[in-house]
Amino acid sequence: MSPDLLMIGSFLLALLLGMPVAIALGLGGLVGIVAGLPPAMLGTFGTNTYNSVAKYPLIAIPLFILTGLIFERAGVAAALVRFAQSIIGPRHGGLTVVAVLVCLIMGGMSGSGPADAAAVAMVMLPSMQKAGYPKPFSASLIAASSSTAILIPPSIALILYSIVVPGVDLRALFAAGIFPGILAGVSLLAPALYFAKKYRWEDPEAVERPPFWPSLKAALPALFAPVIILGGLRSGLFTPTEAAVVAVAYGVLVGCVLYRNLSLRNLWGLMTDAAVTSGVVMFIIALAGIFAWAGTTLGTFQHLADALLSLSENGWVLLGLVMILVLIAGMLLDAISIYLILIPIVLPLMNHFGWNPIWFGILLAMNIAIGQFTPPVAVNLMVTTRIANIRLEHTIGWALVFVAAMLVSLVLVMLVPGIALWLPEKLGYVVGPW
């Protein structure tokens, strides 16, 4: 059996046996080295794991994870929900608009879908249940809406993409994710509002409208978070990695001083949680470095890319196949693992067909976002169903409705690259050819 097949086969077998993704990646890379390279190459194991994580931009990942936890526990979601309700007012489907809008704003603080799903579900689910929305519908909508966090900057997945793909400007990626993220949110609202009006959920006369000005005042600290992060990046005041430090400092200010829902003891616990989550992420990245090095040295990734190219020379056909592959992977794996496993394979295709790397990165992110609320794994849906105290299989019908809606937005961005590329180009970032 060829080293390529042994490497890929051992990785897939490890996943099927239930091994963690990080261990499966490291084992696959190790098998590839033993099968196809001189024994002395085993000495690169330690060097490659270190080199995979010893990258300055990766510092932003644990810091943005900490930022998301701080804003989640600071009570930001409750303030944003009240402010959104004061704008939307009482109407059929009003709470669905509030849920999507708050998820989009929260995505501009944490970059993590599961964190946003937890924060918004804790606040929105009781209100939506009281207004007559079925729990499976509400849990599915919040899970789908919070998946836009992977598109709205600062996105942890886009940070990793900018590191894995050479020459990609993270600021351009952040800017490129804004309009597709908003489009994804709007696409979710279409079926949500339709069903809310069809089934007469949320009686306008029974819903209280919070006063606007007090709600705005309470929400202002939260609303300023995305402005500070994106404004600082645009002005050149700080780099994306420095933006993560600023975001943590601002989150502490909001949680401890302005909202006063956090104490120094709470912060210690949050830092512990962030360290554990970051450790898992970095462990995956470290062992994925072995897999990537072995696959590149053996030529495995190029061989897989050549096999895909042999299926068709039509770029649109292969782009569709890649999107299907990523969607299936998104149902089973987390975003970080998908980027680390699939990018080395699809990178030769991107270069062969001249796909814009910024646009392609956003397409991958949108596809992975859909996977975050698509069973069987559906990490966001797992979070919201646990909070709603319902079984995940009860949400499958509603989840598939929202999957179809977001697929429409994905196809639009595929057909009209300007949806993603117009803003970074106008901001003066290098985006390459359309």
TrEMBL record:
<protein>
    <recommendedName>
        <fullName>TRAP transporter large permease protein</fullName>
    </recommendedName>
</protein>
<dbReference type="InterPro" id="IPR004681">
    <property type="entry name" value="TRAP_DctM"/>
</dbReference>
<comment type="function">
    <text>Part of the tripartite ATP-independent periplasmic (TRAP) transport system.</text>
</comment>
<keyword id="KW-1133">Transmembrane helix</keyword>
<keyword id="KW-0997">Cell inner membrane</keyword>
<dbReference type="GO" id="GO:0005886">
    <property type="term" value="C:plasma membrane"/>
</dbReference>
<feature type="transmembrane region" description="Helical">
    <location>
        <begin position="358"/>
        <end position="383"/>
    </location>
</feature>
<comment type="subunit">
    <text>The complex comprises the extracytoplasmic solute receptor protein and the two transmembrane proteins.</text>
</comment>
<feature type="transmembrane region" description="Helical">
    <location>
        <begin position="316"/>
        <end position="346"/>
    </location>
</feature>
<feature type="domain" description="TRAP C4-dicarboxylate transport system permease DctM subunit">
    <location>
        <begin position="9"/>
        <end position="419"/>
    </location>
</feature>
<feature type="transmembrane region" description="Helical">
    <location>
        <begin position="58"/>
        <end position="83"/>
    </location>
</feature>
<dbReference type="InterPro" id="IPR010656">
    <property type="entry name" value="DctM"/>
</dbReference>
<comment type="similarity">
    <text>Belongs to the TRAP transporter large permease family.</text>
</comment>
<keyword id="KW-0472">Membrane</keyword>
<feature type="transmembrane region" description="Helical">
    <location>
        <begin position="12"/>
        <end position="38"/>
    </location>
</feature>
<keyword id="KW-0812">Transmembrane</keyword>
<feature type="transmembrane region" description="Helical">
    <location>
        <begin position="274"/>
        <end position="295"/>
    </location>
</feature>
<feature type="transmembrane region" description="Helical">
    <location>
        <begin position="173"/>
        <end position="196"/>
    </location>
</feature>
<feature type="transmembrane region" description="Helical">
    <location>
        <begin position="395"/>
        <end position="423"/>
    </location>
</feature>
<feature type="transmembrane region" description="Helical">
    <location>
        <begin position="245"/>
        <end position="262"/>
    </location>
</feature>
<keyword id="KW-1003">Cell membrane</keyword>
<dbReference type="Pfam" id="PF06808">
    <property type="entry name" value="DctM"/>
</dbReference>
<keyword id="KW-0813">Transport</keyword>
<feature type="transmembrane region" description="Helical">
    <location>
        <begin position="95"/>
        <end position="125"/>
    </location>
</feature>
<feature type="transmembrane region" description="Helical">
    <location>
        <begin position="216"/>
        <end position="233"/>
    </location>
</feature>
<feature type="transmembrane region" description="Helical">
    <location>
        <begin position="137"/>
        <end position="161"/>
    </location>
</feature>
<dbReference type="GO" id="GO:0022857">
    <property type="term" value="F:transmembrane transporter activity"/>
</dbReference>
